[in-house]
């Protein structure tokens, strides 16, 4: 059984050539999404379709849970059609809840100083993705070709085929790649693909439970072979990844800095 251990969660950045970053629950607070799907959508569905709130919640929740782990789970077009509501418009109604997780901007600014290529790799549907990019200015750190939605490939990040598509598109070296995600099933798929530097998130939702695990063991499920496992460091603040020599101050980005970063990444 393979283990990765170490008291210091910071990687050797000289080994990292590619950085893959999940968005919801990693860069951004998952509270927005959890509140939308569990609270705001059932309430607005009941109002729009003139149903009793408790029954509407039960109905919407059952439909959503039935699609867990599939691309439909993340597809706004699917839910707009299935529920006969404008999901994108409803998501904009609570856009004020969209915010960065702790350390996100510090890490993104640090990454702009590195030769490594950084990408957002998300299960978010493009329509919802645009709402979030606008809300917090996340787009200033990534050019459009550095933002990849699993919907582009027709497979969720939980699927092996997604990682095959991504490798073909980006031509990254798994042994020199970092990936951060709050979803254990996604981390398992990335581990099975051979990505070496994996990180999880201790508190994806600012109003949710905080994991007390410094490391979480995840399975490397590979078809036709024995199940292996790895220990994945759990982060509470993305700034934990920044070398101490770079944490004394956080520079303020100017328009020239942003332009330079967009050119580099």
UniProtKB/TrEMBL annotation:
<protein>
    <submittedName>
        <fullName>GMP/IMP nucleotidase</fullName>
    </submittedName>
</protein>
<dbReference type="InterPro" id="IPR006439">
    <property type="entry name" value="HAD-SF_hydro_IA"/>
</dbReference>
<dbReference type="Pfam" id="PF00702">
    <property type="entry name" value="Hydrolase"/>
</dbReference>
<dbReference type="InterPro" id="IPR023214">
    <property type="entry name" value="HAD_sf"/>
</dbReference>
<feature type="compositionally biased region" description="Low complexity">
    <location>
        <begin position="245"/>
        <end position="255"/>
    </location>
</feature>
<feature type="region of interest" description="Disordered">
    <location>
        <begin position="242"/>
        <end position="265"/>
    </location>
</feature>
<dbReference type="InterPro" id="IPR050155">
    <property type="entry name" value="HAD-like_hydrolase_sf"/>
</dbReference>
<dbReference type="InterPro" id="IPR036412">
    <property type="entry name" value="HAD-like_sf"/>
</dbReference>
């Amino acid at each position: 059984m393979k283990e990765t251990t170490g008291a210091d969660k910071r990687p050797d950045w000289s080994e990292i050539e590619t950085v893959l970053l999940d968005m919801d629950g990693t860069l951004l607070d998952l509270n927005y999404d959890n509140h939308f799907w569990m609270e705001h959508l059932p309430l607005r569905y009941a109002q729009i379709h003139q149903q009793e709130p408790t029954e509407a919640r039960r109905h919407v929740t059952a439909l959503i849970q039935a699609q867990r782990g599939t691309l439909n789970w993340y597809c706004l077009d699917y839910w707009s059609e299935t529920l006969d509501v404008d999901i994108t418009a409803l998501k904009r109604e609570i856009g004020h809840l969209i915010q960065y997780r702790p350390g996100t901007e510090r890490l993104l600014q640090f990454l702009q100083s590195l030769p490594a290529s950084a990408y957002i790799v998300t299960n978010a549907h493009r329509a919802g993705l645009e709402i979030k990019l606008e809300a917090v200015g996340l787009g200033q750190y990534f050019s459009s070709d550095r933002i990849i939605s699993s919907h582009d490939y027709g497979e969720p990040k939980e699927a092996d085929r997604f990682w095959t598509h991504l490798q073909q598109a980006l031509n990254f070296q798994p042994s020199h790649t970092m990936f951060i995600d709050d979803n254990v099933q996604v981390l398992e798929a990335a581990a099975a693909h051979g990505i070496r530097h994996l990180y999880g998130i201790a508190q994806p939702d600012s109003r949710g439970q905080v994991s007390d695990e410094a490391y979480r063991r995840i399975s490397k499920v590979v078809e036709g072979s024995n199940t292996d496992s790895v220990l994945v460091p759990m982060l509470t603040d993305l700034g934990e990844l920044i070398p101490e020599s770079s944490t004394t101050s956080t520079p303020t980005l100017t328009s020239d800095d942003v332009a330079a970063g967009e050119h580099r990444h």
